[in-house]
Specification:
The protein is of the alpha/beta class and 279 residues long. The chain contains 10 helices and 8 strands. The protein has a single domain (10-278), classed as Alpha/Beta hydrolase fold, catalytic domain (Rossmann fold, 3-Layer(aba) Sandwich), CATH 3.40.50. The longest helix is centred in the first third of the chain and has 15 residues, at 10-24.
Length: 279
């Protein structure tokens, strides 16, 4: 069956890319834009930092792209060679085809990225869907992960089934409702206006993925033998984050768990804490 594409229209894609370019203007350091060839098409990457520094891979969440990491890159790049990737099938510049969650396609894709960048091992930081992919890759290729940092990861705790009804209710009220919804997702904290407008633009032009993200088995999670750092918010309305924390604590001896009492699903301003823990 042919894979669904990320964007509803070419015009919508162009609008999102234009907005992404504006967001990248906030990256006030020398950086490069790379196009990496993989078995699943082109992959767009933002990279910054000394080429000889330890490598760090950043994987964004669903319905987002590498621009979500701009402020983080500013703090990570003095100590790491940072690679922020656009995941295929998401609203970025990588190949538009939405690869299935139930196959090895996405971890094959990330393996190709490692190879094309000549990375033997890297710190990998993922958020939500990106954290699920980082976990999936680490289970299959543990030797390629130096440290694994998971921000509200999918696939470990279950998804909150009531979220879809909360989302549909707020979306029925148009932009005002969408603004309220993202505030709730953000732990009842207002999202910066520039990112909120980006999320609204994505919602209009992106074919949001609706298929469930698979839950990892116990024996798979036990393969995470590298240092693992978990960050979850108690106010996460998308995932049962306390379940995530409890399960990782039980199955992964090397996990360091950070529970943020006021945090939602979108966690921000954690770069200093992450740098301190992974050093």
């Amino acid at each position: 069956m042919k894979n669904k594409k990320a964007f509803k229209t070419k015009q919508g894609r162009d609008e999102l890319i234009k907005y992404s370019d504006m967001l990248l203007e906030e990256l006030t350091i020398p950086y490069e834009r790379l196009n990496i060839n993989t078995r699943h098409g082109n992959t767009f990457c933002i990279t910054a930092g000394d080429i000889s520094a330890p490598p760090m891979i950043l994987l964004h969440g669903s319905s987002m792209n590498s621009c979500m990491w701009v402020s983080d890159i500013l703090k990570y790049h003095p100590k790491y060679r940072v690679y922020a990737l656009d995941i295929p099938g998401e609203p970025g510049r990588s190949d538009e085809r939405q690869l299935p969650f139930t196959t090895s396609d996405l971890d094959d894709w990330l393996y190709d990225v490692f190879n094309e960048l000549s990375l033997n091992k890297a710190v990998v930081i993922g958020a939500s869907l990106g954290a699920w992919l980082a976990t999936k890759f680490a289970i299959r290729y543990p030797e390629k992960i130096d440290k694994l940092v998971l921000l509200c990861p999918a696939g470990i705790g279950t998804q909150n089934k009531s979220f879809i009804f909360t989302a549909l209710f707020h979306m029925a009220f148009g932009e005002k409702g969408i603004r309220k919804l993202f505030k709730i997702i953000n732990g009842n904290v207002d999202m910066p206006e520039i990112m909120l407008k980006f999320q609204i633009l994505i919602g209009k032009n992106f074919n949001t993925r609706k298929e469930p993200i698979p839950i990892f088995r116990d024996d798979e999670i036990r393969r995470l033998t590298m240092p693992v750092f978990l960050f979850v918010g108690e106010k996460d309305i998308i995932l049962h984050s306390m379940e995530t924390a409890d399960r990782l604590k039980k199955l992964v001896p090397n996990v360091r768990i950070n529970i943020l009492p006021e945090g939602g699903h979108s966690l921000i301003n954690l770069t200093d804490t992450i740098l301190e823990q992974i050093k």
